[in-house]
Amino acid sequence: MSEFQAYLQLGFEHITDSNGYDHILFIMALCTIYTLIDWKKVIVLVTAFTIGHSITLALATLGLVSINPDWIELLIPITIVITACLNFFYTVPKGSYVKRDDNTMLRYGLALFFGLIHGLGFSNYLRALLGKEAGIFNPLLGFNVGLELGQLIIVFIILSIAFLLIEILRVQRLSWIHILSGIIVGMAFSLILNNELFQSITGGSAD
Protein backbone atom coordinates (compact mmCIF):
# COMPACT_ATOMS: atom_id res chain seq x y z
CA MET A 1 0.00 0.00 0.00
CA SER A 2 1.35 3.43 -0.95
CA GLU A 3 1.73 6.28 1.54
CA PHE A 4 -1.15 8.13 -0.15
CA GLN A 5 -3.45 5.11 0.12
CA ALA A 6 -2.51 4.53 3.74
CA TYR A 7 -3.42 8.07 4.76
CA LEU A 8 -6.54 8.00 2.59
CA GLN A 9 -7.68 4.98 4.59
CA LEU A 10 -6.80 6.71 7.86
CA GLY A 11 -8.77 9.82 6.85
CA PHE A 12 -11.78 7.71 5.88
CA GLU A 13 -11.66 5.74 9.12
CA HIS A 14 -11.24 8.89 11.21
CA ILE A 15 -14.39 10.65 10.00
CA THR A 16 -16.51 7.48 9.99
CA ASP A 17 -15.28 6.22 13.38
CA SER A 18 -18.29 5.84 15.68
CA ASN A 19 -16.04 6.33 18.70
CA GLY A 20 -15.23 9.86 17.54
CA TYR A 21 -18.70 10.73 16.37
CA ASP A 22 -18.50 14.51 16.74
CA HIS A 23 -17.77 15.10 13.04
CA ILE A 24 -20.54 12.67 12.08
CA LEU A 25 -22.97 14.62 14.25
CA PHE A 26 -21.98 17.86 12.55
CA ILE A 27 -22.55 16.45 9.07
CA MET A 28 -25.91 15.07 10.24
CA ALA A 29 -26.86 18.51 11.59
CA LEU A 30 -25.93 20.09 8.24
CA CYS A 31 -28.05 17.66 6.24
CA THR A 32 -31.05 17.17 8.53
CA ILE A 33 -33.41 19.45 6.59
CA TYR A 34 -32.65 17.83 3.23
CA THR A 35 -33.46 14.62 1.36
CA LEU A 36 -32.04 13.14 -1.84
CA ILE A 37 -34.30 15.46 -3.83
CA ASP A 38 -32.27 18.41 -2.51
CA TRP A 39 -28.92 16.98 -3.59
CA LYS A 40 -27.83 20.17 -5.40
CA LYS A 41 -28.28 22.27 -2.26
CA VAL A 42 -26.42 19.67 -0.24
CA ILE A 43 -23.48 19.70 -2.66
CA VAL A 44 -23.11 23.47 -2.16
CA LEU A 45 -23.42 23.10 1.62
CA VAL A 46 -20.94 20.25 1.90
CA THR A 47 -18.55 22.02 -0.48
CA ALA A 48 -18.57 25.05 1.83
CA PHE A 49 -17.72 22.81 4.79
CA THR A 50 -15.03 21.05 2.75
CA ILE A 51 -13.38 24.33 1.74
CA GLY A 52 -13.29 25.43 5.36
CA HIS A 53 -11.79 22.30 6.85
CA SER A 54 -9.37 21.81 3.95
CA ILE A 55 -7.88 25.27 4.55
CA THR A 56 -7.18 24.83 8.25
CA LEU A 57 -6.23 21.16 7.89
CA ALA A 58 -3.44 22.20 5.51
CA LEU A 59 -2.35 25.29 7.44
CA ALA A 60 -2.28 23.59 10.83
CA THR A 61 -0.61 20.42 9.56
CA LEU A 62 2.09 22.54 7.91
CA GLY A 63 2.60 24.38 11.19
CA LEU A 64 1.40 27.74 9.87
CA VAL A 65 -1.51 27.90 12.33
CA SER A 66 -1.42 26.72 15.93
CA ILE A 67 -4.39 26.76 18.33
CA ASN A 68 -4.70 24.97 21.65
CA PRO A 69 -6.27 21.55 20.87
CA ASP A 70 -8.31 21.73 24.08
CA TRP A 71 -10.20 24.74 22.73
CA ILE A 72 -10.82 23.00 19.41
CA GLU A 73 -12.24 19.95 21.18
CA LEU A 74 -14.67 22.23 23.01
CA LEU A 75 -15.57 24.37 20.00
CA ILE A 76 -16.44 21.40 17.75
CA PRO A 77 -19.51 20.27 19.77
CA ILE A 78 -20.53 23.93 20.09
CA THR A 79 -20.61 24.15 16.27
CA ILE A 80 -22.83 21.07 16.28
CA VAL A 81 -25.30 22.60 18.74
CA ILE A 82 -25.55 25.87 16.79
CA THR A 83 -26.02 24.09 13.44
CA ALA A 84 -28.65 21.70 14.80
CA CYS A 85 -30.53 24.51 16.58
CA LEU A 86 -30.73 26.43 13.30
CA ASN A 87 -32.76 23.52 11.94
CA PHE A 88 -35.60 24.32 14.35
CA PHE A 89 -36.17 27.59 12.48
CA TYR A 90 -36.53 25.84 9.13
CA THR A 91 -39.91 26.16 7.43
CA VAL A 92 -40.92 23.69 4.74
CA PRO A 93 -41.18 25.51 1.37
CA LYS A 94 -44.62 25.58 -0.22
CA GLY A 95 -44.42 24.32 -3.76
CA SER A 96 -41.78 22.27 -5.51
CA TYR A 97 -39.68 25.04 -6.97
CA VAL A 98 -38.96 27.36 -4.06
CA LYS A 99 -35.26 28.12 -4.38
CA ARG A 100 -34.22 28.54 -0.76
CA ASP A 101 -35.45 29.12 2.77
CA ASP A 102 -34.64 32.28 4.69
CA ASN A 103 -31.62 30.74 6.40
CA THR A 104 -29.93 29.27 3.31
CA MET A 105 -27.11 31.79 3.01
CA LEU A 106 -26.56 31.76 6.76
CA ARG A 107 -26.34 27.98 6.62
CA TYR A 108 -23.71 28.12 3.87
CA GLY A 109 -21.69 30.73 5.74
CA LEU A 110 -21.76 28.75 8.97
CA ALA A 111 -20.74 25.56 7.15
CA LEU A 112 -17.68 27.36 5.78
CA PHE A 113 -16.77 29.00 9.09
CA PHE A 114 -17.36 25.90 11.20
CA GLY A 115 -15.39 23.91 8.64
CA LEU A 116 -12.35 25.98 9.65
CA ILE A 117 -12.77 24.77 13.23
CA HIS A 118 -13.27 21.13 12.26
CA GLY A 119 -10.18 21.30 10.04
CA LEU A 120 -8.11 22.18 13.11
CA GLY A 121 -9.54 19.11 14.81
CA PHE A 122 -8.60 16.92 11.85
CA SER A 123 -5.09 18.38 11.86
CA ASN A 124 -4.49 17.42 15.50
CA TYR A 125 -5.13 13.80 14.60
CA LEU A 126 -3.09 13.95 11.38
CA ARG A 127 -0.08 15.55 13.08
CA ALA A 128 -0.15 12.80 15.70
CA LEU A 129 0.00 10.24 12.88
CA LEU A 130 2.75 12.01 10.96
CA GLY A 131 5.25 12.17 13.82
CA LYS A 132 8.59 13.25 12.36
CA GLU A 133 7.94 12.33 8.73
CA ALA A 134 9.74 14.65 6.32
CA GLY A 135 7.33 14.42 3.39
CA ILE A 136 3.93 15.90 4.18
CA PHE A 137 2.21 16.43 0.81
CA ASN A 138 1.09 12.84 0.13
CA PRO A 139 -0.12 12.21 3.69
CA LEU A 140 -2.01 15.52 3.73
CA LEU A 141 -3.63 14.93 0.34
CA GLY A 142 -4.46 11.31 1.06
CA PHE A 143 -5.92 12.09 4.47
CA ASN A 144 -8.09 14.88 3.04
CA VAL A 145 -9.38 12.69 0.21
CA GLY A 146 -10.20 9.99 2.75
CA LEU A 147 -12.14 12.53 4.82
CA GLU A 148 -14.14 13.55 1.75
CA LEU A 149 -15.00 9.99 0.77
CA GLY A 150 -16.20 9.22 4.28
CA GLN A 151 -18.11 12.47 4.41
CA LEU A 152 -19.91 11.75 1.14
CA ILE A 153 -20.96 8.30 2.36
CA ILE A 154 -22.34 9.78 5.59
CA VAL A 155 -24.25 12.42 3.61
CA PHE A 156 -25.69 9.81 1.25
CA ILE A 157 -26.88 7.64 4.14
CA ILE A 158 -28.55 10.56 5.92
CA LEU A 159 -30.27 11.82 2.76
CA SER A 160 -31.41 8.30 1.86
CA ILE A 161 -32.96 7.75 5.29
CA ALA A 162 -34.69 11.13 5.07
CA PHE A 163 -35.99 10.32 1.58
CA LEU A 164 -37.34 6.95 2.74
CA LEU A 165 -39.09 8.39 5.78
CA ILE A 166 -40.43 11.59 4.21
CA GLU A 167 -41.09 10.71 0.57
CA ILE A 168 -41.95 7.01 0.88
CA LEU A 169 -43.32 6.49 4.40
CA ARG A 170 -44.82 10.01 4.48
CA VAL A 171 -43.41 11.00 7.84
CA GLN A 172 -43.96 14.72 8.45
CA ARG A 173 -40.84 16.55 7.32
CA LEU A 174 -40.81 18.93 10.29
CA SER A 175 -41.24 16.00 12.68
CA TRP A 176 -38.16 14.33 11.22
CA ILE A 177 -36.17 17.56 11.35
CA HIS A 178 -37.14 18.41 14.92
CA ILE A 179 -36.64 14.92 16.33
CA LEU A 180 -33.27 14.34 14.67
CA SER A 181 -32.05 17.85 15.50
CA GLY A 182 -33.12 17.38 19.12
CA ILE A 183 -31.17 14.13 19.36
CA ILE A 184 -28.10 15.79 17.82
CA VAL A 185 -28.31 18.75 20.23
CA GLY A 186 -28.58 16.39 23.19
CA MET A 187 -25.57 14.33 22.13
CA ALA A 188 -23.51 17.45 21.41
CA PHE A 189 -24.38 18.94 24.80
CA SER A 190 -23.17 15.70 26.36
CA LEU A 191 -19.83 16.16 24.62
CA ILE A 192 -19.62 19.73 25.92
CA LEU A 193 -20.47 18.78 29.50
CA ASN A 194 -17.87 16.00 29.48
CA ASN A 195 -15.19 18.17 27.92
CA GLU A 196 -12.26 18.67 30.31
CA LEU A 197 -11.74 22.32 29.37
CA PHE A 198 -15.43 23.08 29.91
CA GLN A 199 -15.31 21.40 33.30
CA SER A 200 -12.22 23.38 34.30
CA ILE A 201 -13.87 26.65 33.22
CA THR A 202 -17.15 25.95 35.00
CA GLY A 203 -15.73 24.03 37.93
CA GLY A 204 -17.97 21.10 37.03
CA SER A 205 -17.32 17.38 36.85
CA ALA A 206 -18.43 14.57 34.58
CA ASP A 207 -18.90 12.32 37.64
TrEMBL record:
Keyword terms: Membrane, Transmembrane, Transmembrane helix
Signal peptide: none
Family matches, as Pfam families: HupE_UreJ_2
Parts of the chain that traverse the membrane: 20-37, 42-65, 71-90, 110-129, 149-169, 176-193
InterPro entries assigned: Put_HupE_UreJ (IPR032809)
Protein name: HupE / UreJ protein
